Fold this protein.
Amino acid sequence: MINPSHPLDEHRLHLTRREFFGRSTNGIGTAALASLLGQQGLAAAPAVGGLPHLPHFAPRAKRVIYLFMNGAPTHVDLFDWKPKLKELHGEPVPDAYIGSKRFSTMTGKAQGKLLLAPVEPFSQHGRAGATVSALLPHIASVSDDLCFVKSAHTDAVNHAPAISFLLSGGQLPGRPTLGAWLAYGLGTENDNLPSFVVMTSVSKGTTCGQIFYDFYWSSGFLPTRFQGVKFRAGGEPVLYLKDPPGISRAVKRSVLDNISRLNELKLQEFGDPEIATRIAQYEMAFKMQRSVPDLADFSDETAEVLEMYGPQVNEPGTFAHNCLMARRLVERGSRFVQLMHAGWDQHNSITTELYTQCKDTDQPSAALVKDLKRLGLLEDTLIIWGGEFGRTPFIQGDIKNRPRWGRDHHPYAFTVWMAGGGTRPGLTYGASDDLGINAVVDPVHVHDLQATWLKLLGIDHERLTFRFQGRDFRLTDVHGHTVDALFA
């Protein structure tokens, strides 16, 4: 007797289903190919090929732009104003705040470490009175449009595990990331552009850039057609946008049609989902040859819009350029755009490179909020800004050597802000203690953030699952609660 919950029996059942769907004239391969040729997307259809019925309920947001500050921005220098931290500058951190907490090996034991005041002053902004550092004047100017979470906390203490945890729900690589889940669950609003796009940037001259691992936008065990499409930082965003000399559009279309027919035969014979991915990749590449040049051409943007994003907006590979690209992508129907900007890992450069990071990202981040609002897109576009954790309120380095001041990794409290997409503007939710060390008022775990983001998109995080190796997996693992207080 076959037990569907047993991994081996489940594998046999998948082979049987694969044989059925592959040899059926109405198999998933035919349906997939038809959708790629312009019919309704599979993810929007009722459970075709095993894809989920989504959204579960009316969404507040239709799309996401994630401004991921790779390397962990320092919450106590940017958003989380702590007068007591300034008062106790240079004093040892009280043991009661530390306990048995684990820090990176660069800190080791935190006992005896000296507290470090914010490097620049804070002030209140807008009608809501949000506290923002002088390092971020442009973000401060739109603070009434932002929803701050100042009690976020995570489980991981090092970069790659923490980023993987925040984006995929697991510290080890191999699980689908947030963008892949949304591409799988919600599909795309434009068949000519990828549903999930990734762009990376790093400030010039930085010494603390982080590696951008491909698993930060992986589809994990979902079919690989749902993984993020990474646009290049220089030159054309995608390679081979132009056909070789002597190859016309009609010839290219004919070649692709013949390749698709061959792949379709193999798909019908074997039912391997990776063959369906290959068909999808060829079709998307053909369509992107037309859609991407238009996307990357800023000549139709007004001088006022370009000026709003800052002086680097016309320089491919910069954060400003990527922010305008993100707006143009969601405007055209991409579901999830992930911008990752490295250089926030300031172990010994709080007084130098933090200033560069803020200068390069502050104006474009605020411009994105204002631009989407101007176009009427902010109300159903969720913007997320934040890193994988915060940074220690105590110093890393010699407090007598100001040019080399730094802060270590800090998972126990950090700040994330959101805008649009059904979030409550002007809200500051939660709080860390009076030194910015522990989340003490309305703590929000990473899984709670994930559950909340999915709910804004009309998805019940407990119901968006995928069976793999005998288990139903989800983004939030077996945890997470939505924070409904963040909703408008």
Notes: The first strand starts at residue 63 and ends at 70. Residues 16-50 have pLDDT under 50 and may be disordered. The radius of gyration is 24 Å.
